[in-house]
Each structure stands twice: as structure tokens, then as C-alpha cells.
Amino acid sequence: MQITEHANLKQFNSFGMNVTSRYMVEVNSEEDVKELIASDLFKQNDHLILGGGSNVLLTDNFEGVVVRNVIAGREVVEENKDFVKVKFGSGENWHDCVLWTIENDWGGIENLSLIPGTIGAAPMQNIGAYGVEIKDVFEELSAIHLETGMTRIFRNNECEFGYRESVFKKELKGKYLITSVTLRLSKKPDINISYGAIAETLNSLNIADPTISDVSRAVIQIRQSKLPDPAEIGNAGSFFKNPTIPSQKFEDLKASYPNIPGYPQPNDQVKVPAGWLIENCGWKGKTIGEIGVHKNQALVLVNYGNGRGKDIENLSKEIRASVREKFGIELTPEVNII
Length: 338
What we know:
The protein is globular, with a radius of gyration of 20 Å. The chain has helices spanning 30-37, 40-43, 94-103, 121-124, 196-204, 212-226, 247-256, 274-279, 309-327; strands at 2-8, 20-27, 47-50, 56-57, 62-69, 74-79, 83-89, 128-129, 132-133, 138-145, 151-155, 176-186, 234-238, 244-246, 263-265, 269-271, 287-288, 291-293, 300-303, 336-337.
């Protein structure tokens, strides 16, 4: 367990915010986690757990302990002719693990290629893209309670997965550190190209009978065409969730805005793309000093180099207010604002 004082966090958050923490601790194992939470350093200070730092906006210096989760590991724990269960250390890079499963011809998460962050963050927000969510392949996770040091196993139903939601973002927020995640992957994968852009991209590549590797390649191509690389422009991907509204409200909006897109959901609800709402409020491509809204994707707020977290937080509030005023829809940030 390595402890650093007055640590610069710029390289540990994808927005590239130039802020510091009073202490930073790297944990490499469950034993490290248990040793840390038993220490006076942890008990006497606020704490913030960082994995890849790809879903967080740091608005100021953190006067506590930043815990960097770098727990590694990839282990097959069960296998038969149809599926394989793989246990991943929660500090493993998500996209690297996706590519590794594809190399082994295990299907299930190829549609989630190029999502930034760590394995441990994936179930916390039930990451999803292109017709697939982590809950579809999730088996269980192991987590340590940050007050008692007790280890608990959470099965799929205990995680209370929802749209970019889980129990770890609600009543258990900040109470556990996830140490491992086990996924059930298929040796006879069903190819999912139901999301239109994937089928179109595969068609442009003249691929008629795609493999999971082909699907991954298509997803990567789509994401790279729409989303800026955090190594070049600071960002955390989609800043807002796509809102869900009652069907009647959607029909009322459609009368005024015939081109508004919507996707039917259970319980007489409709999901509306937040990017469309933001773009139609005039924000797409807008630059304000060192920050702004990306020119290719209105869902992405960006730091062009020397932006401040507070400025991006204020921009997000202005965007929410304009969408609320024009469409009567409340946007919810997907990014954790600290």
C-alpha cells in the first residue's frame, strides 16, 4: 500500500482537472483495502475512491484521502462447452479486458468496447452501449464494507440494476469498495447488431456475417467518430443520462417538435436522447473560454486544456436549465460531481 501526500490528480481523471488531494493511496489487493480502512489516516479523513477517473468531475482540491483502485487479475472460475465465468480484479482496465475476452472468443461485452474506466466501475453504473448493458452478463461481485471491513458477495438481483444505475449509486453509495467482478460470457455468442449504427458500419466494411471481433471493431469506429479522446481533449464521455418521460408528454412535445426522437420503454414511458435536446437548445459546439460542448456530440462536455471543474459544473447547470425551459424535461448528470 503506497501513500502519497499532496498528490496531483490531473493524470488520474479523464477531464484532466489540475487538482490535488491531501493524500493518495494505491490499493493492489483486498488485504491493502482492509489495512487502509483500519488505519487512522482513513478513519480521520474524508475519502474518494478513484478507478479510471473517467466518470468524475473534480471541482476543487480534495482535502482527504483519494483511494486509487489498481487491483488486477483475470481468472476463469467456471467453464463448460457453452459459457465461461471470468473473475476480474476491479482495477483492471475495462477496454483491455473486452479485447482479451474477444481474443479468447468469449462473447457478451463486445458491444461495450472502448468504454473508458475500470472493471469495478462497470456494475456501479450498469454501463451500457449499442443494445447491451453489463447486467446482461453480470454474475456477481465482491466488495468490502468501508466501515466494518467485511467482505460481501453481491449477485445480479442484489445490485438493483437500472438505466445507468445500481444500488451502489443509491443507498449503498460510498459504503463499499468493489474488489472483483465476475462475468458470464458465451462460447457460442449471439451477435447483437440491433443498434442501427453497428449494422450500417458493418455494411460499410462489407461484413455480412460478423464475428464478435467485427462487432467490436465497428463499435470502436463509431465511438471514435463521435467522441473525443480524453488523452487529447479532457472529457468524461456522456455527461447526462438520456431522460425518460411519460408517453403523453412525448406526444405533446412531438406536436411542437415533429423531429424529436423517442424510444418506447416499459410502463408507458419514452426515452428521449439527451444529446438531441441539448443540440436543439443551441449548445452543440459552443466554446466558453477553456471549456465547452463538443462539436460532434452535444452530450459531451469538454476541457480544452486549462478549464476548471467549477466552470464545467456551471455549464452543465446552464444546459439543464435551458432544456428544462424549452422542453420541460429535467436532465440528470451521469458524471459524479465532486
